[in-house]
Amino acid sequence: MTDLGLLGPENTFHDLARKRFLPHLSFAYFQNFETIFKALKDGQIKQALVALRNSHSGQVGNNLETIRQRGLQLIEEFELPVNLCLGSLKPNTIKSIRKVFSHPMAIKETTHFFSKYSHIKFIASSSTAGAIDELKNSRDSQAAVISSKEALESKGLLIIAEGIQDEKHNTTTFGLIRA
User: Fold this and answer.
1) Which terminus of the chain is more solvent-facing, meaning fewer CB atoms within 10 Å of its CB: N or C?
2) DSSP secondary-structure letter at 105?
3) Structural domain boundaries of the chain?
4) Which UniProt keyword terms apply here (predicted)?
């Protein structure tokens, strides 16, 4: 049995939290929170690491409610600083970007940064790291992605801007849970 389930792919903020706080555990990536909760209940994983709340945007989905409703145990909480960056496949400026892929929470956490660029359309993704794959699949030279610096660098994207989150000391609290 795998020790830990978390939102993937590699270099999501969930994965960055795992690397920082739980590097010794075997792990498996899941596509969404529901599949993580199901795997935990079905005994496929011993524990799960899920985002609970963000210092800027509030609760992450209904994860806290789901934990309570399903009788899961919250074992420990970890707070991870969240530094959001804007990256693209091609050399771009923010003014040349027409479309941005990212997780809805990252989009919400960068509202002020993008307030001057009303021409940009936002595309919601299942994770900040997964948004990179969506960007690559789109092959849109005028598109970008909001993600971590680690994820952008690992996928060979160019960084247009760093620290674009509205709250300078933005953090996400992750919960370690078990059935």
Assistant:
1) N
2) H
3) 2-81+170-178, 85-161
4) Amino-acid biosynthesis, Aromatic amino acid biosynthesis, Lyase, Phenylalanine biosynthesis
**Cα gap 14→89, rounded to integer Å:** 24
Q: Is the pTM here over 0.70, yes or no? A: yes
* Position 158, amino acid: L
CATH for 2-81+170-178? 3.40.190.10
| CATH architecture for residues 85-161 | 3-Layer(aba) Sandwich (3.40)
Q: Given this chain, do its domains 2-81+170-178 and 85-161 carry the same CATH topology?
A: yes
Write the single-letter amino acid at 112: H
Residue 163 neighbours by CB under 8 Å, 6+ apart: 83, 84, 85
DSSP-assigned letters across all residues of 18-87: HHHH-TTS-EEEESSHHHHHHHHHTTSEEEEEEEEEETTTEE-TTHHHHHHHTT-EEEEEEEEE---EEE
Return d(Cα 89, Cα 73) in angstroms, integer: 41
